[in-house]
Amino acid sequence: QVRLVETGGGLVERGGSLRLSCEVFGISLRYNTVDWFRQAPGKEREGISSVDSMKGRFTISRDNAKNTMYLQMNSLTAEDTAVYYCAARLGTYSTKLKENEYQFWGQGTQVTVSS
Q: How far is CA 2 from the centre of its chain?
């Protein structure tokens, strides 16, 4: 059974940092695709790497030995307030996947940035 568990969310002041973790169970991170998404209140869910405002502030990394993905977020603003999710699809791909192509989703972790 594939399961993704996000942790590390919380309340942080504007300008602060957080590191989110996504631990993957049931499949190997090494041979499958796992990515980060977020959904802000009243907005559609979006991929973390698809928004210019995140570039240079957000860094995605992985530890294959721990089967865990990370999302390091710096210089947070109120606009980063959202539920952050990780999602997986079996296999690896050379092109970027569409959101509806991901097969498994975590429950999400809330990030709230105070302004």
A: 17
Q: Which residues contact 97 (CB under 8 A, 6 or more apart)?
A: 33, 35, 89
Q: What is the DSSP letter of 45?
A: -
> Listing from the earlier edge strand, what are the strands of the sheet with 58-63?
3-7, 18-25, 68-73, 58-63
Q: Are 20 and 61 in contact (CB under 8 A)?
A: no
Instruction: Tell me what pLDDT residue 23 has.
Output: 98
Question: What are the helix and strand counts (H, E) for the chain?
Answer: 0, 10
In angstroms, rounded to a whole number, what is the distance separating the alpha carbons of residues 11 and 13? 7
**Predicted confidence band of residue 51 (pLDDT cuts 50, 70, 90):** low
- For the chain, the first-to-last Cα distance in angstroms comes to 40
Nearest-angstrom CA–CA distance, 27 and 67: 9
The pair of structure tokens assigned to 95 is 């092109």
SS3 helix, strand, coil % of the chain, rounded to 5?
Answer: 15, 45, 40
